[in-house]
Design a protein that fits this description.
It is a single chain. This protein has 216 residues and is mostly helical. It has helices spanning 25-43, 50-57, 64-67, 71-94, 101-116, 126-134, 139-165, 175-196, 200-212. It has 9 helices and no strands.
Amino acid sequence: MFLLDDRSNICNNILMSNKLPITKFSDTRQQILHAAKGIILGKGFAAVGLNEILSTAGVPKGSFYHYFKSKEQFGEALLTDYFDDYLHMLERILKDDGSSNSSRLLKFFQFWLDSQSSDDTTDKCLVVKLSAEVTDLSEAMRLTLKNGTDRIIACLTHCMEEGIRTGEFPAKLDAKAVTAEIYYMWIGATLLTKVCHTRAALECAMNATKEKLALN
């Protein structure tokens, strides 16, 4: 997903407590975004009212437009914040810690499999949750989704390139193309997991990923 500065946030911090102290504009804005993520992951974007978000965030009703000009702008900010947190987590997993590129890459996909097949909504994929809903409603939100997924693919591509360079993955692989193919496969598998309520699609994606990278 493009390569960002080193950061230390991890994925379990994507959803923070709704009881954080509100001391200034940026804190309040972030409070609203964090509160909204959990609600929207469960209900979707259009179905959630602003009053519910503000109540959950502990922010006075009627103050929403002090922080966001419109619900669409709020949606853009929500997605940007989600992708920033997601990239922090991804970079933490893929950061060179002395282990192989292949083991770190598989660690990420194992996290994806486990988190997206669990009953807990807090780590669910906002891309899968909102893509079909908001891309027809808002061009700005569609572009934010595209930019975010491009960033994820670029980050994974970097790990893939390093793995090819060190001989962990087949030299014939086109790192950018194969990474995009694998990512699209996992997004599709995540969607099917929501439909079928089983791990089967994600497990197929894991097996196909290992086969594609000659890791079986």
